[in-house]
Design brief:
about 170 residues; alpha/beta; five-stranded parallel beta sheet; 7 helices
Length: about 170
């Protein structure tokens, strides 16, 4: 699995899951936006289309890229032009910085969720190694991830909307 991270140096290196993924050989760190692999699946929280099983051909051929930046700077950083931009559906963060916050996932959590939803569950779970807290992300989101797994983008949006309606009540 080709995993890439465009790292913007906006975070605490001691807490950064992206840098640790790079050190552990799980992903390639890119510091120059011109070197972002074309056609890869770009995880963008502002994208209109959600990641789904339909993205498997892109993932297999070109890989996945996450942009690692501060959530405060996200709207500026995510202006990168790419045709394969995808957002993640509703999930709850379990990382030490944003624990319990909806949709404020770490780079590691974003990769795990993407692989899990696209039906690469084994690959997703293999990324948990080396992060003491990472299994908690699966535990917190297990039912949701299973409901999204292997579904089309349209089905995932429907599942997400039903879940959000239940949470409002």
């Amino acid at each position: 699995m080709k995993l890439y991270i465009y790292h913007t140096n906006q975070c605490d290196p001691k807490k950064c899951t992206a840098l640790k993924m790079g050190r552990l050989g799980m992903a390639k760190i890119i510091k120059n936006h011109c070197k972002i692999p074309r056609n890869s699946l770009l995880l963008n929280p502002f994208a209109e289309t959600t990641v789904s099983v339909e993205d498997r051909p892109i993932i297999e051929k070109y890989g996945i890229i996450a942009l690692d930046c501060s959530w405060k700077q996200a709207e500026k950083v995510f202006r990168i032009n790419s045709k394969n931009q995808r957002s993640l559906p509703f999930l709850v963060a379990a990382n030490p910085v944003n624990y319990g916050k909806p949709c404020k996932l770490s780079t590691l959590e974003a990769f795990v969720a993407t692989l899990y939803i696209a039906n690469y569950k084994k690959d997703a779970l293999s990324l948990l190694n080396g992060f003491k807290w990472a299994k908690t992300f699966i535990d917190v989101n297990k039912k949701i991830l299973e409901s999204y797994r292997g579904k089309s983008s349209k089905e995932i949006i429907q599942i997400q909307n039903e879940l959000l309606q239940k949470l409002k009540k």
